[in-house]
């Protein structure tokens, strides 16, 4: 059951092609041109594209990662043209490495790696128990 403050409109399906990276409109029209289906969700006056096959995603809808589909043929809304799927800020990975070579005589060394993930990168790579809600 959704919260009472939630304004659910509806969801639609969008046919996508992941290998063409938005250049599907340059191809000849064909139902066989698409190789993936995602969902377009309209919720609280916002549009979200959700790929249910992308597992282990966490966090809010606005932070969910989608592959770089760029375009979809939306089914059920009467559209006859491709719809743009906005690219999300994928986030970034910052890695700091600290190497300490203390003593060459007894082969002692220390490597410290600090990795910081932001945006969608965080929901993909950081374990769920360490991901802020």
Kindly describe this structure:
The protein has 133 residues and is mostly beta strands. It folds into 2 domains: 77 residues, no CATH class; 38 residues, no CATH class. 5% of the residues lie in helices and 38% in strands. The protein contains 1 helix and 7 strands; from the N terminus they run βββββββα. The strands form 2 sheets. It has a 5-stranded antiparallel β-sheet, with no helix packed on it. The chain has a two-stranded antiparallel ribbon with strand order 6-7. The two termini are 20 Å apart. The mean pLDDT is 76.
Query: Separation of termini?
Result: 20 Å
Strand arrangement, major sheet? 3-2-1-4-5
Instruction: Please provide the count of β strands.
Output: 7
Strand fraction: 35-45%
Q: What is the CA-atom radius of gyration, in angstroms?
A: 21 Å
Number of domains: 2
Helix content: under 10%
Unreliable spans are: none
- The run of helices and strands is EEEEEEEH
- Write down the overall geometry: elongated
Q: What structural class do you assign from the helix and strand content?
A: mainly beta
Overall pLDDT level: 76
Largest sheet: 5 strands, antiparallel
Number of helical segments? 1
Explain the layout of strands and helices:
Blueprint lengths: L7 E9 L19 E8 L2 E5 L20 E5 L7 E2 L8 E11 L4 E10 L2 H6 L8
Antiparallel strand pairs: 1-2, 1-4, 2-3, 4-5, 6-7
